[in-house]
Write a structure and sequence with these properties.
By secondary structure, this protein is an alpha/beta fold. It folds into two domains: 4-141 and 307-376, D-Maltodextrin-Binding Protein, domain 2 (3-Layer(aba) Sandwich); 144-305 and 379-423, 3-Layer(aba) Sandwich (D-Maltodextrin-Binding Protein, domain 2), CATH 3.40.190. Helix content is 47%, strand content 13%. The chain has 19 helices and eleven strands. Bound molecules: alpha-D-glucopyranose. Alpha-D-glucopyranose is lined by residues 70, 94-95, 141, 196-197, 200, 252, 270, 307-309.
Length: 427
């Protein structure tokens, strides 16, 4: 009986107290609005680590969550930046966006002069446009082939090194497990929706078949070739056999959903899925491991698309000093170590790959150093401001092929014509 009465009294008191606190600190303290995609547990992890910065500076971070799709985020960011939105202070930006969004962000060269040399030079370079450092690295990304150790062992299957082996292994385990009653089990899940993630997946298929990088680093268009065609035909063969028909609308989280509930033998995904897959309540905890993505065999090699996220400060932010401080914090060893420990995101600071605590908590991280250092960049540097259009034409051609609308050969030929036209006399 007494509980409700106490609560009724306590509420106004608490409200008044926090209002006082706000007034007392508002002269120096700022609220920094940070916009980021919400993949996996990203927002909660950020919130937790930001507490350190909030305690040290007296400022607060307000996280503005975006959809998980990088393509949707990009569209929203472009609208906000075009409107010179002054509500958002710090943008979390994909590694591919620097050339397209550079003009909207503050040059961080001076602010980062002490920490920049501790990062991998290639990552700093990827965020540098015409000498301007447009964003500071938060984490880098390179995908893995996730596999169920228990299921491969049970069915006497080796970890596949080629796409052919992967296809056969996935089919074998899927068939055998379904015969034992696991009706919902699929062989292989990946990202097949029509968005940037499909560009990443398909670039890996094409490159690991010896079919080039869509557009080469020198700007030449290379996508219409036999190896690329073969790569897409192989992937089309998975849809509805070892991969659910719905894979054509999967992004990272949909693939992880099937995988983490124990309903996939193999998955292509980024390292964040490693931490989540091993979380306390995960049905696949301790049952899986990771390997490099397969190649086509012979003299071809595995290809992982280079991903990653960075912090950029808006030119239109009224809190630039605090925003720069937050961006710099995200590129610090303190932040990146916690982030690696909690979320298995790959650090961009060289020395963290030798950190024993990180290696013990998230063994994928030291193992993935070589993979990300050899990862294949998407053609965002050579195509400059046209990259989003290039990528959307590519993922559309791939999605059409996977959906059975036109053959790989037809769609790639049309794509090449389209890209030629977009390029005109130069990117
Ligand atoms: C990951 C990568 C990012 C990529 C995206 C595609 O978030 O880090 O670079 O664009 O996946 O879905």
């Amino acid at each position: 009986m007494s509980t409700p009465r106490t609560r009724r009294l306590a509420r106004p008191l608490l409200a008044a107290a926090s209002l006082l606190a706000l007034v007392a600190t508002s002269a120096q303290a700022a609220q920094v609005n940070f916009v980021t995609g919400a993949t996996g547990n990203a927002i909660n992890v950020f919130k937790e680590i930001f507490k350190d910065w909030e305690a040290a500076t007296g400022n607060t971070v307000n996280i503005v969550p975006m959809p998980s799709s990088t393509t949707d985020q990009f569209a929203q960011y472009r609208l906000w930046l075009a409107a010179q939105n002054s509500d958002i202070d710090v943008y979390m930006v994909d590694v591919i966006w620097a050339p397209q969004l550079a003009d909207n962000f503050v040059d961080l060269t001076e602010a980062a002069k002490d920490i920049a040399p501790t990062h991998f030079p290639s990552i700093i370079e990827s965020q540098t446009v015409d000498g301007k450092l447009v964003a500071l690295p938060i984490f880098t990304d390179a995908p893995a082939l996730y596999y169920r150790k228990d299921l491969l062992e049970k069915h006497g299957v080796e970890v596949p090194k080629t796409w052919e082996e992967l296809t056969a292994a996935a089919q074998k385990v899927q068939d055998a497990e379904r015969a034992e009653g696991k009706k919902d089990l699929w062989g292989y899940v990946w990202q097949g929706a029509a968005y940037e993630g499909l560009t990443c997946n398909a670039l890996e298929w094409v490159k690991s078949n010896g079919g080039g990088q869509i557009i080469q680093p020198d700007g030449s268009i290379s996508i219409y070739n036999d190896a690329a065609e073969k790569a897409l035909d192989t992937a089309k063969g998975w849809v509805g056999t070892i991969s659910p028909p719905g894979v054509l609308s999967y992004m990272e989280e949909e693939a992880r959903g099937v995988w983490q509930t124990g309903n996939a033998v193999f998955m292509r995904n980024w390292p964040y899925a490693y931490a989540l897959g091993n979380s306390a309540d995960s049905p696949v905890k301790d049952l899986f491991d990771v390997a490099p993505l397969p190649s086509a065999g012979g003299d071809t090699t595995s290809a992982a698309t280079l991903g990653g996220w960075n912090a950029a400060v808006s030119r239109f932010s009224p809190n630039q000093e605090e925003a720069i401080s937050l961006a710099t914090f995200m590129a610090s060893p303190e932040f990146q170590k916690k982030h690696a420990l909690m979320a298995a995101n790959l650090p961009t600071i060289v020395s963290l790959y030798d950190d024993p605590e990180i290696a013990a908590a998230q063994p994928i991280i030291p193992r993935w150093k070589e993979i990300f250092l050899n990862a294949v960049p998407r053609p965002s540097a050579p195509t400059k401001v046209a990259y989003n259009e290039v990528s959307s034409k590519f993922w559309t051609a791939v999605h059409q092929t996977l959906s059975g609308n036109g053959s790989a050969a037809e769609n790639l030929e049309l794509l090449e014509v389209d890209l030629d036209e977009l390029k005109g006399t130069g990117w």
